[in-house]
User: What shape does this take?
Amino acid sequence: MFWQQLLNGVALGSTYALIALGYTMVYGIITLINFAHGEIFMAGAFTGLCLVSYFKTNIFVAILAAMVVCMILGVVMEFIAYRPLRRSSRLSALISAIGVSIFLSSLALMIFGADAKGFPDTSFPVRLIRVGSAEISTLQLLIIGISALLMLALQFIVQKTKIGKAMRATSEDYNTAALMGINVNRIISFTFAIGSALAAAGGVLVGVLFNAVSFNMGLMAGLKAFAAAVLGGIGSIPGAMLGGLLLGISEVFGVAIGYSSYRDAIAFAILVLVLLIRPTGLLGKKIVKKV
Amino acid sequence: MLEVEGLSVNYGAIRALRQVTFSIAKGEIVALIGANGAGKSTILNTISGIVPAAAGKINFLGKDLTKTPPHRIVELGICQVPEGRRVFARMSVQENLEMGAYTRTDSREVSRDLDAIYQRFPRLGERRKQPARTLSGGEQQMLAMGRALMARPKLLLLDEPSMGLAPMLVETIFGIIQEISKEGTTILLVEQNANMALGIADRGYVLETGEVVVQGPAAELAANPEVRKAYLGE
Assistant: This one.
């Protein structure tokens, strides 16, 4: 029972982690909580759904296509809604983010209607595999596998590639990065592209997992992933991964011990606790005021 | 090489620079001295493009820099060692140096320059895998200078390289600045330590509340009674 729940928690938590990464990376660079990030996740889920339903592609193609579409969406969103406000107060950008969020979910409501849509049964063959006392479904394997793969790829990009190092430099010190010849605007676009692609993959996976894609799915998922990012330490990439997993596991165990009606409250209780006890999160850096 | 003409900069309603005019010829070391808040760092940051100019021209090798983005200015051959060193604290020493070479595409030459930096600063070589925050103040200053040199700048801007360093280290750093100059890099040096700066500079400019008030050959400035009184502690 314990192992079964842990497994369920890890699968759910991986999807939170995928979304949380986008929050944390964007925050790390421009200290903006991109409240439209949950809607990128929703857009990814719809893109995947359309491809599987209308174009009969397999799930892997759908995930890849959703990632590409959302990459573009993320970059365009930054360019239109955030870049012009770069030198304004942080509050203006935050309000703009909420505006984008409302715009994207209303757009989805107009196009797809208010009902949740499901993936066709044929989109992914779900089988159960026995491992000891637990059962793992092929769907959970898919979710955990793809999430792990994407997070490894992200880690490689951030740690080893030139543009990844420039991302870290920019997130440490925006002005000095510019003084080194780093085109900071390009790095910001790149960060939005990567974060949005991860959220899109999360969107398709969650859509298949719960077999429901709806215009407002980004709201709750986005808020929970935001809580996960804060739990791990906003701005920290490993923190977002850890926070996502912990949140997923807590939620599943909370439901298992009988608090199923408080399912969504668990994430926010954790958020409040973290902010009270350790506002920098588990792996967050200490906030040092620059003089 | 660099001609700054009538440069004014505003921070909101505050005028930080007023009609500043100066020039640097190829191969020179030029010192900008003045008290805290006189506008020295503002001049460097305006040249580097991270502070916008309100009026005036900055001409570098025949190109106007006032509308050029910071990363293009580095490509044109100007790199800055910012005040307070500003190394990337959580990145390794080697990664910091790689960031200095960000605009370059000649990877073989870059790794040759990296070796040269490690030869010039052996302490950095010993610590290449350590995060930059674990370095001492003097080592961080060397790292910040090495990082800027990795860009192979034609003009190197140095902002307060002596800040917070022990006198012996200041001597070392100024010795290195002279070496860099001898190797053919033009240098614009901003310093509160006017004594040291005028000691190695060819020419100097004295700034007061955003304006150039005195200028001339470094030896002349060092002998000027008013400059001595105001900035050399006499």
